[in-house]
Amino acid sequence: MDPADFYSGIVVDAYAKLKSSTFVAAPYIDFVRTHGEPGLEVGCGDGQPLLDLCEAGLDVEGVDSSMDMVVRARENAAERGIRTGIYCQRVEGLRLPRRFASIYFAGPTFNLLADDTTAARALRAIREHLTDDGAALIPLWVPNPTPENEFGVARTADDSGVQLRYTPLTETYDEDQRTRTTSSRYERVTPEGTETADREWIIHWHTPGSFRELCHDAYLEVVRIVDDHTDGPASEASVNFTAVVRRRSEDSQPTRNGK
Questions:
Q1: What gap in Å lies between CA 96 and CA 140, rounded to an integer?
Q2: Per-residue model confidence (pLDDT) at position 160
Q3: What is the pLDDT of residues 186-214, one digit of tens each?
Q4: What is the spatial distance between Cα 140 and Cα 163, in angstroms, rounded to a whole number?
């Protein structure tokens, strides 16, 4: 399965019920208010925190690579009486009808881009969708290997008589490729039987240095990279950090003949 199609079928139900934390909207509200509207949430999932920003009166749209997630987000928006654009597109292939003063990833969604080539394409697409004075907020994460005692142990949640399960099975942790690949099983258990979906959850991480190089190649300027734990500048040892980037001048780009 293509990594962009990970969130489909019963995985979408499991995501809503089993996710370990919820997004706090305030940092994204502050970012959009600081850098301007319209805003775009990349990887909007089922609409959190996108819909909270809309309820705060901000002009923000969302995009996600999963049609199942987009449907769920649109349903959640309708239930809350919110009207906004929610698109199904991959970030590396964005073709949206307008540009944005603020683009943000809610949480380290950028890490779901499975390799540097895809990540570089995504950064170029982000650049093309920023206004000339716009900015993008990109949280990043360096994962640890999954502890051995968690393999084969299901995390469960009940939903109106339906049990949802997530079980990590095996894992490959490749420091050279900066990639963690976890083979996982999702299950929906009902009185009628059990539905199963096996997935490979790929996390591709970046260091502050490698991320700066990707941004440079995408003609983006890194305004700052902040360690989320210290609120100071991120170092190569940082494991949770957030970058703010903006467009570099058109004058710094090569011409069509490469000169």
A1: 24
A2: 79
A3: 999 998 999 999 999 999 999 999 999 99
A4: 32
CA distance 144 to 208: 17
Residue 43: count of CB within 10 angstroms of its CB? 22
In the chain, the amino acid numbered 106 is: A
Rounded CA separation 156/158 (Å)? 7
The residues facing 190 across adjacent strands are: 193
Radius of gyration of the chain (CA): 19
* Assigned CATH topology for domain 3-142+206-252: Rossmann fold (3.40.50)
**Which residue is it, tokens 């997630």?**
69
Q: Using CA atoms, how far apart are residues 167 and 10, in angstroms rounded to an integer?
A: 13
**Whole-model pTM?**
0.92
Q: What is the CATH number of domain 148-204?
A: 2.20.25.110
CA nearest neighbour of 225 among 217, 216, 233: 233
Residue pLDDT, tens place only, 100-115: 999 999 899 999 999 9
User: How many Cα atoms occupy the beta-carbon half-sphere of 253 within 13 Å?
Assistant: 14
